[in-house]
Amino acid sequence: MYAISLGDDGAELRPLEPWHAEEFLAHLDRGREFIGQYIGFGARETDVDSARALLTSYAEKRAADSGSLHGIWLDGKLVGGVLFRTFDAAQGNCEAGCWLEPAAAGRGLVTRAITVLIDWAVDERGMHRVEWYAATANGPSINVARRLGMTRDAVLRESRLHRGVRHDIEVWSVLAPEWRAARARASRGDH
Ligand SMILES: CC(C)(COP(=O)(O)OP(=O)(O)OC[C@H]1O[C@@H](n2cnc3c(N)ncnc32)[C@H](O)[C@@H]1OP(=O)(O)O)[C@@H](O)C(=O)NCCC(=O)NCCS
After folding, report:
1. Chain-centroid distance, C-alpha 63
2. Is 172 in the pocket of ligand 1 (CB under 6 A)?
3. pTM, to two decimals
């Protein structure tokens, strides 16, 4: 299948589809504890059928143009992914998200992959607002939002119950004109 290079370190972004169920399950099993610290993603996917069901649900979202799932492969191994959890082309709003297995963290893979997604959403699909939801306690995810140049819009106090703890959830976003301006500054080498 087609792949987008994320740099010169062998990292690639590819569609993550139902036929990847076994590979996706093996990846989730390597990362389960780390991935599930603040989010429920992948927690119910404990066998090939449930893993395929999650991938199929995203294939259906993609067919409906209401979301999509993309895997990150490093040297040919699935190590994480990025997604549009929601995608509302009529309103111009979408929400992006991400996960990695622990061995793939700390290399900028998600920041690079989300940049590809936002470029596409803004340039190809005319999206106006890309959102990012993360628990305040999830420092690495908040740092991704900050690194992408997003602005913190709000804190939804104690709004997510996860593993018996109520978490504050931060809403971050970037608007299309902000994204384009930051990209132009970066290409000029400005700060
Ligand atoms: C959220 C999560 C994906 C962040 O992973 P991450 O590796 O910190 O994020 P990135 O892939 O963007 O990498 C950034 C790190 O790589 C470093 N890095 C190296 N090369 C880089 C590059 N070219 N570009 C950007 N960052 C780079 C950065 O300095 C940063 O490291 P630091 O935090 O130690 O400073 C990860 O913690 C995770 O999967 N958590 C579990 C699932 C989850 O909570 N998902 C988010 C739901 S809201």
Report:
1. 19
2. no
3. 0.97
